[in-house]
Amino acid sequence: MPRFIIERNIPQAGDWSDEEADDVTAKSEEVLANLPDVQWQLSYVVDDKLYCVYDAPDAESVNEHARRGGFPADKVSEVRRIIDPTSGGR
């Protein structure tokens, strides 16, 4: 299944309390329960953005999750290749 990186512009996301982060997680999981082909892998929270990793059949499915959850999806990019220190790009 294709993998996508979603960039979400959310001012002060890096300052969320544990409770605020839990609320966002719960909302995402609620929406995902009705989108069985979409899987949230993880998210990186930085100062004013989230970078989320999702597996989904297509970018439209990722955007549908965002619409239903009320989350921004400012940029959705399909992962073309994964490289790491052990792969040498292969």
From TrEMBL:
Pfam families: SCO4226-like
Top-rank lineage group of the source organism: Bacteria
InterPro entries referenced in this protein's UniProt entry, alphabetically: SCO4226 (IPR042557), SCO4226-like (IPR025336)
Protein name: DUF4242 domain-containing protein
